[in-house]
């Protein structure tokens, strides 16, 4: 038994799964993908509304690691839109999300490198 709260994340996008996770004694359930696709997911759960499973279409690419990065890019893009209060009118393509993530990460590394060089 641990005194540290235990969190489970990944694949929780339906009420039944969430209830099973909490019934198993897990303290915190992460639902980023569900929130990215259905921003009012928790409110719908509380109201007892039926919620269709929130799924990102995962690319069927031979390299599963790159396919997972693309899927995470889709989720991050949706979360960014929601954080700015924008409505999602269309789903971003996984390949575009992957390219966007790679570009944004490249910019972050470049900014970090410049700041680090100025402080040395």
Task: Summarize this structure briefly.
The protein has helices at 15-23, 32-37, 41-47, 64-83, 94-119; strands spanning 7-9, 28-30.
What does this protein look like?
The chain has helices at residues 15-23, 32-37, 41-47, 64-83, 94-119; strands at 7-9, 28-30. By secondary structure, the chain is mostly helical. The chain has a two-stranded parallel ribbon. α1 (15-23) links the parallel β1 and β2. 14% of the residues are buried.
Q: Which helices and strands appear, and what pairs or packs with what?
A:
Blueprint: E1 7-9, H1 15-23, E2 28-30, H2 32-37, H3 41-47, H4 64-83, H5 94-119
Helix pairs in contact: 4-5
What overall geometry do the principal axes of the alpha carbons give?
Answer: globular
The largest sheet is:
2 strands, parallel
Task: State which percent range the strand residues make up.
Answer: 5-15%
Total strand segments: 2
| SSE succession | EHEHHHH
- Return the average pLDDT rounded to an integer: 86
Number of helices: 5
Secondary structure class reads mainly alpha
The strands making up the biggest β-sheet line up spatially as 1-2
Helical proportion, percent range:
55-70%
Rg over C-alpha atoms, rounded to the nearest angstrom: 18 Å
Which stretches of 5+ consecutive residues score pLDDT under 50? none
What is the terminal separation in angstroms?
Answer: 46 Å
């Amino acid at each position: 038994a641990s005194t540290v709260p235990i969190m489970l994340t990944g694949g929780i996008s339906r009420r039944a799964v969430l209830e099973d996770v909490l019934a198993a004694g897990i303290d915190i359930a992460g639902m980023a993908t569900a929130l990215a696709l259905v921003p009012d997911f928790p409110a719908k759960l509380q109201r007892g509304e039926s919620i269709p499973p929130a799924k990102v279409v995962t690319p069927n690419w031979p390299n599963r690691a790159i396919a997972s990065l693309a899927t995470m890019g889709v989720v991050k893009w949706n979360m960014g839109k929601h954080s700015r209060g924008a409505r999602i009118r269309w789903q971003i393509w996984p390949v575009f999300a992957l390219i966007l993530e790679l570009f944004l990460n490249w910019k972050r590394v470049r900014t970090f490198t410049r700041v680090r060089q100025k402080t040395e």
